[in-house]
């Protein structure tokens, strides 16, 4: 027979699930680790099943039962936070904590504007950012570490519920002193076959970028494999070229060099920027409001 459980236990459980660490969650909640562990144990007893499993050197992760409980409990916790205002018939804007995942190349280019606009409209919501490569953020969404995410469409598989926000065709960047820097017409990847390529070497990104050369029938000369978007741009400012999707409105880099963006002559597959959520998640009002702001900002 199931025992009674409390909203406090659910809130503590959600914090551990999002942080994937009892230690970090306890610090965030400002309670002792022993009190937090006790609350989670009581909730597991009430549910009649284990909600977490320990992962050596990483902390904890949700079991399948724990993931189902997280998806069900987030809207419930949000409704509980809003209940007093609803009883008073006050207008209640979304409030609480929203964990947003973002693929690193998108993070510095789109997210600041989105979060700023969201903060102006929903100041009662605390936004926490989980930033990483495509696979890391995808797993964070599936495991409950973040509620909603901005990702590229590549390598997502069928495990997420997604909505396309925009499409980004590939383009080339070269240093401002490169022979092609003053080119006014599009450049072909074939023209760059003998040039050193600086590759953005992230999971799924590398496969997509190298696949573009396969489409054209060219084998690139990869000089450097780098995992930082700005690092790639800074290297290209001094040597070689890169193929990227997010086109910046300026050519400045973190070094004294500059880069120039060139259109590609070939019509190559674009990547899509998508909003992603777990397939079984019941969106909170916070997540729905964030999605609305993303649509408005990105599609302007």
UniProtKB/TrEMBL annotation:
Coiled coil: none annotated. GO terms for molecular function: DNA binding; DNA-binding transcription factor activity. The keyword Protease does not apply. Keywords: DNA-binding, Transcription, Transcription regulation. GO terms for cellular component: protein-DNA complex. It comes from the Bacteria. InterPro entries: LysR_HTH_N, LysR_subst-bd, WH-like_DNA-bd_sf, WH_DNA-bd_sf. Residues 5-63 form the HTH lysR-type domain. The keyword Mitochondrion does not apply. PROSITE patterns: HTH_LYSR. Belongs to the LysR transcriptional regulatory family. This is LysR family transcriptional regulator. It comes from Kineococcus rhizosphaerae.
């Amino acid at each position: 027979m199931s025992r009674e459980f409390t909203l406090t236990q659910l809130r503590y459980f959600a914090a551990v699930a999002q942080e994937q660490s009892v230690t970090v969650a306890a610090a965030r909640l400002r309670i002792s680790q022993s009190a937090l562990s006790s609350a989670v144990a009581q909730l597991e007893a009430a549910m009649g099943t284990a909600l977490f499993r320990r992962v050596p050197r990483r902390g904890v992760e949700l079991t399948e039962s724990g993931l189902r409980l997280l998806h069900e409990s987030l809207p419930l916790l949000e409704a509980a936070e809003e209940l007093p205002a609803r009883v008073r018939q006050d207008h209640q804007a979304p409030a609480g904590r929203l964990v947003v995942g973002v693929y690193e190349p998108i993070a510095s280019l789109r997210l600041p504007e989105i979060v700023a606009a969201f903060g102006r409209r929903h100041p009662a919501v605390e936004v926490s950012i989980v930033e990483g490569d495509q696979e890391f953020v995808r797993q964070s969404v599936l495991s409950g570490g973040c509620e909603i995410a901005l990702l590229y469409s590549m390598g997502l598989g069928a495990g997420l519920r997604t909505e396309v926000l925009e499409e980004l065709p590939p383009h080339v960047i070269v240093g401002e002193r490169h022979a092609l820097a003053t080119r006014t017409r599009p450049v072909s990847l074939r023209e760059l076959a003998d040039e050193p390529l600086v590759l953005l070497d992230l999971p799924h990104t590398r496969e997509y970028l190298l696949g573009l050369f396969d489409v054209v029938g060219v084998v690139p000369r990869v000089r450097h494999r780098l995992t930082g978007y700005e690092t790639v741009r800074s290297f290209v400012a001094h040597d070689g070229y890169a193929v990227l999707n997010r086109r910046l409105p300026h050519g400045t880099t973190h070094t004294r060099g500059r880069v120039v963006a060139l259109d590609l002559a070939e019509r190559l597959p674009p990547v899509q920027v998508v909003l992603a959520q777990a397939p079984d998640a019941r969106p909170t009002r916070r997540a729905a409001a964030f999605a609305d702001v993303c649509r408005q900002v990105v599609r302007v």
